[in-house]
Amino acid sequence: MMILPRRHVLRACALALSSLLGVAAPLAGAAAPPQGAPIRVALIESLSGSFANTGEAVFRNIAWAMERVNARGGVALPPAAGGARPLMLVRYDSKGTNEEALSALRAAIDGGARFVMQGNSSATAAALIDAINKHNQREPGKRVVFLNYSAVDPALTNEKCSFWHFRFDAHADMRMAALMEVIREDKALQRAYLIGQDYSFGQAVLREARRQLAAQRPDVAIVGDELHAVGRVKDFAPYAVKIKASGAQAVITGNWGNDLTLLVKAAREVGYDGMFYTFYGNALGAPAALGDAGVGKVVAVADWLPNLPTQGSETFYRAFRERFPSPQDDYVHMRMQLMVEALAQALQQAGSDDPLAVARALEHASVRLYGQAGAMRAQDHQFQQSLVIGVMDRQGAPGVKFDVEGSGYGFRVVRQIAADKAQMPSTCQMQRL
To answer: Where does the record locate the signal sequence feature (predicted)?
Structure first.
């Protein structure tokens, strides 16, 4: 990949400029614009191809979070480190492949970025971690810190943990354990179908589903267990037919993006009326694809949901909808906001943008936003935060003030799991600097 295309550089500059001027900054009062050189943060994500919608959704979240930081004056550093400096988000398209992601990493480093964000693929995250480990050892003067918002293969903060990698999402085992809080109480469930994407994350989800079902619901028979190619299946009808024919009363899946939307749509079309226990069933077209067939049937686990019954949560969500009024842009994640807050906090505590100093500060990050809070665990760089479980229902039903993507369907919170209950042990043996 070549260095960031000019149109993307201009877009990033426009983003930084709008932030400097206080444009679209609903979460903070106006402050003196930061005058120092921008701190460049690279977003390496699928911005074209099958998962372009997920990449663009992430961009909106992180751009909005940086606008908030810049609107309150940017990152306050000592004069010797440039004084008050804005965050600048620069986009790099990985095109859904590890090879392009690695090329994007090289371009980002050459372009001056020392902080990299990625998340929508655990396989890509693993490749980036390996490349960053080698790069940082080879070129200590150009070290890079990797902030991960969605790649949830448990190995990334266990056997593959790295000093340079920080994960801000709950990993797959944590999410599955949260889902099991509801599955354990679903006494009608006797037969389950497991389906997932055929790469490290999807494999980890199914592996953990088998383990936790055996431990907590040994009475549940697994009547289907299969993996499919990531982002390549255009017609899920054959899978949906098998799910229905199996007699499964529930599907357990970690699918995301179009691989989830097309799966649930196909299930509806063949008349499957069982439950869907999902990691990501609350957004990106899935509720609209299911329609009324999903009411009371789709369960999703998340770090936060718009219908969380707190005033702070509602204020936060309304601010996002004001910033991005199009229903198609309705994809907001609290963890991405907390991640940017943690980066800004670590930069200020480090007193510079030196990646080593910032990484050391990030190990102890503790942030709060609109009543939601989280803290980094230094042992394995796994962010610890509360989780919530939601069930799909019609907008206007009790507990469903807000719908998803203008679909008329939202998620009613049925379980909140505190951070200390959501955490899991780690096998990480990290080498620190």
So the answer is: 1-24
